[in-house]
């Protein structure tokens, strides 16, 4: 059986992908411009999405996301219990480091932020769970590429956590550590990210290294990695 898909469905979903933080409402014109589709095509597809509850149309004619997406999101949360294991570790790490803690996985050639916890105070780099970004040269990308995809980025396994500053944005930096699960197989990148000014200083001092390694080791054991492997790999 082929994997050609249905063009109309893909076009409709690409319209939903136009809604992002800071762009929660769109006119017919902006949707047409963003997708390259003719306004008539956008209008027909948005009418179908509106009838199904995936978008709502205001009196001004602008579109916003509808209630059906919230229902599907909640259904996803209920069926995906990984959050009950990962999120407590992220909360503890974010509270200790006072930086954003995230759990990134590989999905379709990108890195997907599956879970994220923000610090309770201070300047921070905010990102919503569900955000998908390229597999770039950031610390997060390097962890997924080296341990998850076996790309030969290094001749020898690098010292963890991996740290990069300004790799994607000159104002931000990140630490990333691999997380393993059953059969000691790679699962995700556990990360701390925030303003480059703060994390550059933390990198110099080394103050956040042990907390990250302990969090990654704890999470790996909870996800099924063997105690012997975790002790050897993380050294904590």
Automatic annotation (TrEMBL):
Pfam families for the chain: HTH_IclR
Organism: Pandoraea cepalis
Stored SUPFAM superfamilies: GAF domain-like, Winged helix' DNA-binding domain
InterPro entries: GAF-like_dom_sf, HTH_MetabolicPath_Reg, Tscrpt_reg_IclR_C, Tscrpt_reg_IclR_N, WH-like_DNA-bd_sf, WH_DNA-bd_sf
Keywords annotated in UniProt: DNA-binding, Transcription, Transcription regulation
Domain (HTH iclR-type) ranges: 6-67
SMART domains: HTH_ICLR
Biological process terms in GO annotation: negative regulation of DNA-templated transcription
Protein name: IclR family transcriptional regulator
Domain of life: Bacteria
Molecular functions (GO terms): DNA binding; DNA-binding transcription factor activity
Domain IclR-ED: 68-236
């Amino acid at each position: 059986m082929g994997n050609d898909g249905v063009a109309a469905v893909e076009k409709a979903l690409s319209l939903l992908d136009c809604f992002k933080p800071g762009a929660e409402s769109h006119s017919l014109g902006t949707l047409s411009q963003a997708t390259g589709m003719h306004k008539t095509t956008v209008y027909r597809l948005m009418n179908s999405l509106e009838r199904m509850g995936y978008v709502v149309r205001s009196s001004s004619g602008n579109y916003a996301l509808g209630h059906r997406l919230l229902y599907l999101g909640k259904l996803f949360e209920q069926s995906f219990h990984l959050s009950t294991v990962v999120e407590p570790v992220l909360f503890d790490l974010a509270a200790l480091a006072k930086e954003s803690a995230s759990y990134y996985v590989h999905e379709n050639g990108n890195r997907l932020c599956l879970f994220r916890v923000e610090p309770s105070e201070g300047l921070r780099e905010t990102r919503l769970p569900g955000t998908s970004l390229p597999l770039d040269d950031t610390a997060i990308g390097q962890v997924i590429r080296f341990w998850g995809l076996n790309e030969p980025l290094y001749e020898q396994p690098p010292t963890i956590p991996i740290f990069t500053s300004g790799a994607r944005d000159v104002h931000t930096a990140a630490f990333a550590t691999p997380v393993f699960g059953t059969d000691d197989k790679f699962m995700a990148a556990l990360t701390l990210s925030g303003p480059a000014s703060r994390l550059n200083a933390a990198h110099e001092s080394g103050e956040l290294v042990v907390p990250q390694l302990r969090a990654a080791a704890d999470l790996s054991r909870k996800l099924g990695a063997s105690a012997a492997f975790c002790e050897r790999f993380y050294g904590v």
